[in-house]
Amino acid sequence: MKRNILVVGAGFGGVWSALSAARLLDLQGSSDVQITVLAPQAELRIRPRFYESNVHEMKASLLELFDVTGVRFVEGTADRIDPQGKRVEYTAGRGVHSWLSYDKLVLATGSQLIRSNITGIEHAFDVDEIEAATCLEKHINALGSYSDSEARNTVVVCGGGFTGIETATELPKRLRAVLGDDAKVNVLIVDRGAEIGAALGKHISPSIAEASAAQGIEWCLNASVTAIDPDGVTLSDGRYIASKTVIWTVGFRASPLTAQVPGERDPLGRLHVDANLKVIGQDDIYAAGDVAFAATDDQGHVAAMSCQHAISLGRHAGNNAAAALLGVPTTGYSQPKYVTCLDLGEWGAVYTEGWDRQVKLVGQEARTLKHTINSVWIYPPVAERASALSAADPSIPVA
């Protein structure tokens, strides 16, 4: 009877966990271990691009890739983890409940946007999932049928972090495409920080400020949204901004499934893991991607919730789960290099290196790099066995 490595999740962490495990099994000539991926759909959803238009295209099918690498796919949504029984309960089509057993489990169920409980939050859009981003896109495309008004022409983005900035700087061009080049469009970012782009650090902030000014994006600083209604938002300083389009971008947490695994968690719900990405206190459970609280180096830095870290975390988690099952040496996770590439709309982008975000490229040169990252580097490998397995080598540097 075959032993089973179960990977829950088909995001960046899950896909690369499965491929890395398959790579090691191939290298070891092992044929008695089955790799199974459990996820709602056999596709990698390119979440870092959900702020863009044509969001329905931001996904890549995984069936052929899994087929050529010997990975079994099970369609379903994980509901409950039973660490003692070493099995995962899931819901398949038509609400059918079933179980999958495992010898080693890799939890890679990502993170999700946690909406505030403020009054009227149901009126806000977001770009957390394809379905939500598609809903926003349809709304923006329909604005041209609305009567001309300040509320129609104004978009309020709640949150001045990475997602909020990339979303906001994408919008002026999209709004003009719908409302006309002569339309007076207004994009506002509401942020609790005291300075523009403060959440991303002093080195990157000037580029954010310049790009915002060039595109007419206004920042409402030292403020937060306290209420939303169909016609606008109320801010903590008492201001009311008329808007038919409010986008929520703050409050990400690890998948709630992490709460079902005994172990220590950080304030974002991520499970503490050791150098092999095994959940501390668990012999058979590994974590990858946004559910892992993992040290990237010996300087106190921890992996961010990003595809940059999720890919490498997946390569190590899958490899080490397979290595533990086969009794061969593991490969400790280390990712000391850290980069940031922030899209700033038509103005360009800004690329930085290091945890202190030292600026290396700005403007259109940085945007060319951002396009390469988003359209090439973060996509899964082609469905050819040798190259796909080779790409899952945990020794490959990411960033």
Automatic annotation (TrEMBL):
InterPro entries: FAD/NAD-bd_sf, FAD/NAD-binding_dom, NDH-2
Domain annotation FAD/NAD(P)-binding: ranges: 4-311
Listed GO MF terms: NADH dehydrogenase activity
Record key words, sorted: FAD, Flavoprotein, NAD, Oxidoreductase
Record field: transmembrane: none
Pfam families: Pyr_redox_2 (PF07992)
Family: Belongs to the NADH dehydrogenase family.
Protein name in the entry: NADH dehydrogenase
